[in-house]
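Might you be able to check the backbone structure tokens below? Thank you kindly.
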Amino acid sequence: VKSARGFLKPPFGGRGQDIPSAKGWLPMFGHLLTLRKYTKDNNKLAAGRLALGIKHNEGLDVFGLSVLGMDMVVVTEVDAIEEIVTNDPQRFTKEFSSAPSFKLAMEFFGKGLFFADTDSEDWIIPHNILKAPFSTKGVRTLMPMMN
């Protein structure tokens, strides 16, 4: 019963500073149907497309998503991203393998940079390739082109 409650109520309420939840949450599915809209021609781009869509449509730089009972926080604000990626790596990690409800999403979207555990080779290889272009200097160079 306790684990079923997570599927029936929106995430991110009452834990320290509240993180706004993106619109489109549904019981049992969470934001899965919202995420599905962004899979069009390439489902591996869905997470990034969703983050940019919510930032554009709802004006949220930091927001919560829930997919099949797995809660996550999405950050699109450059200074916050810099804080996350340049500070203690043990403070911000991902461990999708510990969430059995997320196995379907991993099957659907694949592993790789977004959906692999932090210590998995599926994450380490693309992370090391993208480290330089997405460093603070790299992102600041790209910002004028994105606006």
In short: Residues 46-58 form the longest helix (13 residues). Strands lie at 62-67, 70-75. The mean pLDDT is 76. The two ends are 47 Å apart (CA to CA).
